[in-house]
Amino acid sequence: MSTKQDALEHLRVIRSLMEKAHIYRAISAPAALLGGLLAVVCAGYTGWQMQQKGGLPETMGVLFLWQWLGILVVSSSVNVILLAREAARRGQPLVSEGMRMALRAIFPPLLVGGVLGCGLIVYLQNHILATLLWVVCYGLALLATASFSPRSLVRLGWVFVALGLALFWAYAANSDIRNMPHDDAPANLIMGLTFGLCHIGYAAAVFCSQKPEAVTQRE
Hints:
Blueprint: H1 3-26, H2 29-53, H3 63-90, H4 97-124, H5 127-143, H6 151-173, H7 175-178, H8 184-208
Helix pairs in contact: 1-4, 2-3, 2-8, 4-5, 5-6, 5-8, 6-8
Protein name: Lysylphosphatidylglycerol synthetase-like protein (DUF2156 family)
Keywords: Membrane, Transmembrane, Transmembrane helix
Transmembrane segments: 21-46, 66-84, 105-122, 128-146, 153-173, 185-208
């Protein structure tokens, strides 16, 4: 290998590491923490209502959908702001080639989960199945980035998929849950358990790591 080829190979490796670092920051730990806290607060309020009323609170209907879309918009907006600041600090564009690669990987499962989940809520009033679909599709979206994501994000994807499948079996096998007058409350609790606690755990793991995971060698 000539000196020029050797230099080009080094540049390629350096660029690859930089792209991995950018993708890692594309799923910001602070934004995950914020989204997780909002989800836990929302689910906790539902649990408090159930305790006060001694059973299911009043149905939310489509308001359930707008509530969680609002949390998604807030968390995503904070994520973009943090990404923009990090990109400006490093003198890089916000939407790099690595970011485009990540978006291409996560878009199909998120599109399927989003459209089918909203349809289940709006037309079939089945909030539990909608949330379980969101959980599994979100996990699949994270796993679609496995070839260029840090290991903690891949583990998070597997946790979402495993929880979504396990909760689906529990739901399908329990006629008491399936035959409830409405399922807004248990659906809120599922969202708090998955998108809430799992994101908080992920953010805590990243914050507690001794050095940036994006540049840590994969095990």
